[in-house]
Amino acid sequence: MQRLKFPTALTVLAIVLIVVWVASFFIPSGVYQVNPETGDTIPGTYQELPSCASAPSGATCIDKSFLAQFKRLWDASPSGLYGIENEQGHVGADESGTLYGSAAIFLFVLAIGAFITVTMKTGAIENGIGRLALKFRYSPALLVAVLMSVFALGGTTYGMWEETLGFFALLVPLALALRYDRMVAASMIFLGAGTGVLCSTVNPFATGVASDAAGISITDGIGLRLVMFAVLVPAAIGYVLWYGSRVRRDPSKSLLPREADAQGEMADVPPLTGRQWLVLGIFFGAFALMIYGFVPWNDVWNTIFDNDFPLKTFSNFYFPQATVLFFVAAVAIGVIGGFGEEGTVTTMVQGAADFLGAGLVIVLARATTVIMKNTYITDTILHRMEKAVEGTSSFGFAWLAFLVNLPIALLVPSSSGHAALVMPILAPLSGFANVQKSLSVTAYQSASGFINYITPTSAVVMGGLTIAKVGYDRYLRFVAPFLILVFVIITVFMAIGVALG
Asked: In the chain, what are the domain boundaries?
């Protein structure tokens, strides 16, 4: 009898998509009024949208007939790739407005696949990782701690999350060379960058947007968040090292099936050639340029030092520009590697094909949020949250503000979108509970970061697991104890924040 297996990431997301679509039949649709000048949601203005089948003639309504709902489901996946969001918040391929679909990230992932594969073919990465593994073979924990700290710093300062997709394929062979498993490779990113995002200090996309919506400075409450960072990041590193040390001592302790490609200790690694050194220079230079372009230096620098960043920055650099960067770098490495025109192109296409599954996962994850936007159920859930936190004690408010933001974070995986949605409502409510607005910001971003670890609608979680070849069910088993610890620590910090307020 064949053993039942947990479904793949694409199947999990397809199930989530169907569940959300079915739920939209039963969850009332509704909208808040929005301040036309600031774009903020106005508290107390929620209005339920009636079904067009029962609404008076000429009234604003939403068509929830089966045919209309089925069309929303049918169009969700294409809109998850190239949908446009209009001024009313509706997403569709034929709308006018801003890109809501994941086309930019989708192409970025394919470019990373092409770039990694061409570089791997030169042997530079294999030899480089082998030399690094030899250097740290007696202290692999130090390397894991350093890498996780770097990811955490990126998360807390500029919200490094989607940008980590390019690192999964690089860390897997490194972890295997150090006699860890693929789970360690994936968790270095998830628990490193993810914990940094949860404890965002000057992250303009989370703390910045939330603080602005709450009408406070981004530095308000930074002391509490710095202490959270100092507590949670070592806890994350310790948890990964605890699991990793068990795997090194006894590979049967791994939560993954036996690693067919585990490399073990490398006893004899040839030195890098001059050509390989040049390839690695371009390889790491491309990643360094990407990170430099992604970081909003002026915002971060101005927050800390109250003046403009002294160096030249890119006026516009994000996934579209990074995609071209990696395609160009892949071609350059192909030329240096002596692959010729045909060999370079063939290898790039093969690499992009290898990462296509991760790209499709990202598209399907975005399709789920398209369903929620087009059925207008997100504001209804937000309205329930508004009612839940009214009239509570100070600690009760802070803790409930964290709790009620958890389902919102699940439905709105974008930290900035989540902040813009909830903070105009949460911040005024905190005043009624005698809680500092900065603590409501901490509660929101803690919930957003907590869900970021595991949400199946996240392009990073599902895409990263697909690249690392780690099953979602296995990852949930791995991270569950850590989530319990994080939940308790956040609850303690909510109490401390109220006491200090």
From this structure: 9-60+375-500, 104-362
